[in-house]
From TrEMBL:
InterPro entries: Trp_repressor/repl_initiator
Any one GO molecular-function label of the UniProt entry: sequence-specific DNA binding
Pfam families membership: HTH_23
Lineage: Bacteria, Bacillati, Actinomycetota, Actinomycetes, Kitasatosporales
Annotated protein name in UniProt: Transposase
Classification via SUPFAM superfamilies: TrpR-like
Organism: Wenjunlia tyrosinilytica
Length: 54
């Protein structure tokens, strides 16, 4: 992989981590899991997994 490809992978991973973290914060603030899942394009099960992880 080139340095540019490696940088893109890091950027994508960072974006995904931030996306998941923001979703978790919404749930912690009281937004229903179903709403967060719909807004983030994920399944409710994924959101529960993120809650357990973060």
């Amino acid at each position: 992989m080139s340095d540019d490809s490696n940088a893109q992978v890091r950027d994508d991973r960072q974006w995904m981590a931030e996306h998941r973290y923001r979703a978790v914060l919404q749930v912690v603030e009281g937004v229903p899991v179903a709403d967060v899942a719909r807004q983030s394009g994920a399944s409710p099960q994924s959101v529960y997994t993120w809650l357990a992880r973060y």
